[in-house]
Each structure stands twice: as C-alpha cells, then as structure tokens.
Design goal:
By secondary structure, this protein is of the alpha/beta class. It has a single domain, classed as Rossmann fold (3-Layer(aba) Sandwich). 42% of the residues lie in helices and 16% in strands. It is built from 15 helices and 8 strands. The chain has an 8-stranded mixed beta sheet with strand order 1-2-4-3-5-6-7-8, sandwiched between helices.
C-alpha cells in the first residue's frame, strides 16, 4: 500500500453504542441506503479493509468499518464476559440503529466472520447478506467449542491455552507488538502450522518468520501503534468466551437463509466446512490462491469477487 492510499483511509469517529464507545471509520453516502459493515478479526483492525473501502464506495455503498470492542481506540471493558457473542453482535445491531438502518450487508474476516455468522443467527432481521473470508460458519455440535478443542487438540492448543492460562499469551504479544505482527502477517502462508499447540506464542518469539512480508512499513506502523496502545487482551478475550458463545447461540435457529458468499484462501489451514450448504443453503463458495489474509493478499481479485456477487444479488432482487 502506498502513502497515498494510506492517507485515503477514512478518519475515525467515536460512537457510543451498546454501553461502549467504538472507533468507527465510514465512507460513502449515508443517504444512498446501501449500508455495508466490515468486521475485522484477530489480531487485526478496521484498517484491514483499506483495499476494500474505496471499491465499495465507488460501487455506491455506505461503508461502515468499526474497530470492534477491545481493538484500536474502541472501548476495552474489564471482564471476560464483556466480549461474549451477545455483546459483540449487540454492538453491531446498535451501530445499525445509530445510522438508522433496518438491516445491512455484513462482511467479516477470521473472527469477524464468526461474529457476522453469529449476528445472522441471533438477529436475522438485521442482516440481508453475508460475505465471509477464511472462517466458514461453525457448526454448533454437541459439546461446547473450547471443551471440544481441548478433547481433540489438547490443552496446549492456542484457543484452549488462552482460556486456561489467562494473561500468558497477552504478555508475550504485548512485549513486542511490532515483532509479533511482522511475523504473523506473511503472504501465501497459513495463519498457523498444521500441528496443534501454542502456535501464536511461537510465532511471536521466532527470529526466522516464513514467507514474504504482507504489510508495508506504513501498514505495520498503523498496526503497531494501535496494539501498543490497546494491547492484545481484549482480542484474546473473544477466544475465552467460546463456550459461553456456544450456550448463547443454542436457542436460535441455526440455519442461515440469507444469501452468503464464502471465500477461502487455498493455502490457509483454516478448515473448509464440508457441509456448509446444509446450514447455509444459499451460500456460494469460492477461493483465492492466498494464505490466511485473503482480502489483503489479493485485494483486486477479492474486490472483484465481492462486487460481482453483490451485483448479481442486487440484480436478482430488483
């Protein structure tokens, strides 16, 4: 990303919603009546969508991009429970209310995709379409997710470790955010190696990261400054709520009927959902030759897939 595009990312506004303040970046005409909300994952920021915002604005959308709770200059409430799925989806519902929208299209990557899928389950009337990168809709199963991961992958799997050893990973990441982020953001590489364990802590400590760097110096400066201020605890608390999320989602209809686009990275290790269409019957599945950071690694191709899919559903709805 060059300096011109770095400067073109929208200026933030602090908005009070759902009992917290969120740092929100928006672009495009509010009165266009075509809202689209972009949701980042871990460890990421609203800035992850820097390549998508101009393309969506040019296509006529009102683009709303929050730093979700725990990130950037958004609120970082105390208490793990403040980061459960009811709070995270409640923030997005309140954001729609703030702008006066009955519903919107939502795009999410990684953890942001999990939140968007969950929002569609818990508040189906507020979501008209879903686009997910990297993280397919997660079947609920019969065992709470963290318990299942511990049983299958062991107590050193990083999801489980985050929950059972609170503060350990955050201290490692906080000690040198720039190093951790530089090591993690690599082109054409999976987010994690295939063997389970404390992968993110190993990545944070490595002296020999694999793959070509993804972030420019300007991009890395944005990320490093943000996490040097916020730390990583808020984002890690999202992981620690997975069992609570499993219970909170239990009473809702698990079938997502809205049109959905699922975009994978061919080189990513995030597992593809073998029967996604059984839970999301109106889904289109596709992929790009990337690692985990699909929309950042191949932004032109990612934007093309987004815009073509949106246009096809705009046409079918008219």
């Amino acid at each position: 990303m060059n300096s011109e595009s770095l400067m073109s990312f929208p200026e933030p506004t602090i908005i009070a919603v759902n009992g917290v303040e969120l740092e929100v970046f928006e672009a495009g005409a509010h009165n266009a009546g075509r809202p689209i909300v972009l949701c980042h994952g871990f460890p990421d920021l609203a800035y992850t969508w820097r390549h998508q915002v101009p393309a969506l604005v040019a296509a006529g959308y009102h683009v709303i991009v929050p730093n979700q709770r725990g990130y950037g200059n958004s609120a970082r409430p105390e208490g793990v429970e403040a980061y459960d799925i009811e709070h995270l989806t409640g923030d997005l519902v309140a954001l729609l209310d703030h702008y006066g929208y009955a519903d919107a299209t939502f795009i999410g990557h990684d953890w942001g995709a999990f939140v968007v899928w969950s929002l569609t389950v818990l508040h189906p009337d507020r979501v008209n379409r879903v686009i997910a990168f990297s993280m397919p809709y997660l079947a609920r199963g019969e065992m709470p997710w963290l318990d299942f991961m511990e049983a299958v992958l062991g107590s050193e799997y990083y999801f489980v470790h985050f929950n059972k050893q609170p503060g350990v990973a955050a201290a490692v990441f906080d000690a040198d955010p720039g190093r951790f982020l530089t090591n993690l953001y690599r082109r054409n590489t999976p987010l994690l190696p295939p063997e389970p364990g404390m992968e993110l802590i190993r990545i944070a400590r490595t002296d020999a990261p694999l793959g070509e760097p993804l972030l420019t110096e300007g991009d890395l400066a944005v990320y490093t400054a943000a996490f040097a201020t916020s730390g990583f605890t808020g984002g890690i608390n999202w992981y620690r709520n997975l069992n609570r999320d499993w219970h909170q989602l239990g009473a809702a209809d698990p079938i997502i009927r809205q049109p959905a686009l699922m975009i994978y990275g061919d080189r990513d290790t995030v597992m593809r959902a073998e029967s996604l269409a059984s839970l999301v019957p109106n889904v289109t599945e596709t992929s790009l030759d990337t690692g985990h950071w699909v929309h950042q690694e191949r932004p032109v191709e990612a934007n093309q897939k987004i815009l073509e899919w949106l246009a096809s559903h705009d046409a079918s709805a008219s």
